[in-house]
Amino acid sequence: MQGLGVADQFLLYFILNKYGPGAAMWGGANGTQPWIGLADSNAMLVFLRDILRTNLVIDDNVRENSLAINQAIALFNPTEIVDEVFKYNTLFNVNLMISRINLIIICLAARNQVAEGAIIVLYQKYTPADWLPPRRPLFVPRQCVFRYLTDEFLNTEFTVPTI
User: In sequence order, what are the residues at sequence separation of 6 or more whose Cβ sits closer than 8 angstroms to the Cβ of residue 146?
Assistant: First the structure.
């Protein structure tokens, strides 16, 4: 199921956004609490995986889809799709997953209009040294100052000097 991780990342974003600001799952504060208001790193991982697994439903309605579409849909296994987002078996995969979760938190903060300069909690990526046993917890919270990207920044042309 390679390649579905990004699509599922956005699906997870929309599922989490559905609960809106102040929801208990966000510690009532849109990602400003470590582990999104849950007990620890493991609880956060289980919660995020379960909420995506619970809300990922295959639409195989024969009244809406053709036989060919339903045959193609039958090839999808929702568990494999969820596992693609939460794959952390290599250094690359764990950092990709952490980056996806951080991006979701940033997007939710922007969507829910967290104040410029407010503190949000993002998660540290692994270094090669961190990846060696014994490993640290998967999600290590790090407080960050939230900043909106402005049109001025987005329209800035960045050049790399030639050497």
Answer: 106, 109, 114, 115, 116, 117, 118, 119, 120
Q: What does the angle CA 41 – CA 42 – CA 44 come to, to the nearest 5 degrees?
A: 65
Q: Which residues of the chain have pLDDT under 70?
A: 1-8, 10, 19-30, 149-163
Claim: this prediction has a pTM higher than 0.85 = no
Output the CA–CA distances (angstroms, integers) from residue 96 to 90, 99, 119, 125, in the order listed: 10, 5, 23, 9
96-103 long-range Cβ contacts below 8 angstroms, 24+ apart: 96/5, 98/123, 98/124, 98/125, 98/126, 98/138, 98/139, 99/125, 100/5, 100/9, 100/12, 101/48, 101/139, 103/9
Q: Which residues of 1-34 are buried (b: 16+ CB within 10 A; e: fewer)?
A: beebbeebbebbbebbeeeeeebeebbebbbbeb
